[in-house]
Amino acid sequence: MQRFTEFEFGVPWVMGFFHQDWIYDGPTAADVVAKHLEEESDEEVLAVQRDAQVLLDHLPSETLEVLWTAGTQYIPSFERITGAEWTRTVVDLCASRLAGRADVRPLAGADVEDGFAHRDAVVAEIERVGFLDAEVRRALVECARRCTPDLAFRALLKAVVYAPDGSLASAQYQRMEALGSALHYGEFVVECVRFLVEQP
């Protein structure tokens, strides 16, 4: 049993749009997301919508801002829009992309694995990543406990990629790989942090 894609998906995939040159993909952050959603499969859009909705339903706006900021290389500040408003925008963009398509099949099987059986393991990995700011670790733990461990783990991977001065012990990475396998991830989801593994 495996997910619909070998690569990252859902909200962490959207976070990856916001690198330092994101403005060349569209005049606003919402335009950038809409452009990418239009080019992707229904499954990818459904995965983004599912993640964004669970974040919106279960986390306060301030926590959402921490997660979005930690998971991106560069994102516009939350001075003009709150974390909740931005997350709602992502939900609405997904709904707009899927509107009028009668043949959209809902996610099923591995694609709806939330990872509740692995919550303690995900929380433990979050807490072990000492190079992340304490505020980011708290937001990720809150996501694991109030949303889904699966989403929190994928958000952790994204935050690890963009954290300054990050490095992972080999044993840490092996545990992450094991979690990725348990959550039915494709080959390249956890592998995105492999470059941070300390060399012996």
What does this structure look like?
The chain is mainly α and 200 residues long. 57% of the residues lie in helices and 0% in strands. It has 10 helices and no strands. It has helices at residues 11-15, 29-39, 42-58, 61-70, 83-98, 119-128, 134-146, 149-162, 170-182, 187-191. The longest helix is centred in the first third of the chain and has 17 residues, at 42-58. The radius of gyration is 16 Å and the shape is globular. It starts with 10 loop residues before the first helix and ends in a 9-residue tail after the last helix. The relative contact order is 0.16. The model has no long low-confidence stretch (mean pLDDT 95).
How would the blueprint of this fold be written?
Layout: H1 11-15, H2 29-39, H3 42-58, H4 61-70, H5 83-98, H6 119-128, H7 134-146, H8 149-162, H9 170-182, H10 187-191
Helix pairs in contact: 2-5, 3-5, 4-5, 4-7, 6-7, 6-8, 6-9, 7-8
What features would you highlight for this structure?
mainly alpha; 10 helices; 200 residues; globular
